[in-house]
Specification:
The protein has one domain: MFS general substrate transporter like domains (Growth Hormone, Chain: A, Up-down Bundle). Helix content is 82%, strand content 0%. It contains 18 helices and no strands. Helix 12 runs antiparallel to helix 18 and helix 13 runs parallel beside helix 15. The chain is globular and about 55 Å long.
Amino acid sequence: MGHHEKVVASALLGNAIEFYDFVVYVFFATYIGHAFFPASDRVTGVLLALAVFGVGFVARPVGAIVLGRYADRRGRRPAMLLTIWLITGATCVMALLPTYRDIGVAASVLLTVCRVIQGFCFGGEVGPSIAYLAEIAPSRRRGLYCAGMFAGQGAAVCAAGIIGTATTWWLTPEQMQDWGWRLPFLVAAGATPFAVLLRRRMPESLSAPQADAAQQQGPRRGTVVALSFAILGGTVANYVCTYLPTYASLALGMPAVASVSVAIMVGIATLVFGLLGGWLADNHGRRVVLLVSRLACALLAVPLFAWLSAERSTYALWVTAAVLAAANAINGGALFVAMAESFAARRRATSISIIYAIGVAIFGGSTQFVVAWLGQATGSPLAPSWYLLATSLVAFLALWPVQNGAGAQQRLYAA
């Protein structure tokens, strides 16, 4: 592996660990809900646990502003080092927290605080990471490099699924509820020192040799709006996929092992099709990749959920997860490059972080709660597909006017 590849791997590994820390919570929402939010019925406990999952998203815009500005002033590398220390620290604390049975409502409060810290950190991680990858990438491979971040998140989901499946298969339901749900949170602690070491060796990408007049004028308002709606569509699709383990258990009554194992399919599909989408964006244009991704999610949502509801088999669950994750992941590289090229270097990390964090905070944080509530309110197992269909169509229409970037040689270092 050459020096350039090691630099990219350092950025991607750290982001993957942070995403694992943030998303593994939802795979064990059923156990966490019972441990920290005892309620009169199982569904209410899970809804409360998912509400706390959403609280982590509320802190994202704050982290985007604070840590994004830090990255634009001090550099991408210091910001990326800070976020990985903070988010993994919060994850380790979550793994060791006493439950409601031990200390009462204080357990619920402490869990919420940890989720706020995680959200704050991840809100400030995305902008510097995207900016860094776009800035170090060769001009004709920006889509592939930035897609690596999305693919890395897919690898994180896959890892969470493998660990979750193994623990669920190995332990009894009683052991999982008592202490087994803590194991996936502790795994991140072992990988953190390695990721920190790699990030410490990364060269800084922020520089400003000369200004570019077009970028000094700032991005067009229409571009910012379109990118925001693209985040909306991708976020809802992403978190509908990560909600599938809870959905399969809660709405379809499927066995716990089958429910958790679906994360493996989501992760693999995101990894493979994320990289494929980055390559397609570099070679065939970003606009077509963005539009095809959103249209595919819209057209496939209802048929796939209808089939899954009828079949209620592990095979149907895996196929549904893989297809939806693939359709969503293919746009990652195109979207991230478009975001990076829309802003000058000295405000790039902050701008990307804010757009991403606000979109994810509003829709990512609410998606799993909304679809769970819709399912309970309507009694229909197709509720998640209606929400995915609507948001994907909104994103498709918003992206329609967007044109391809200004070209492969567009400068990324304008001050």
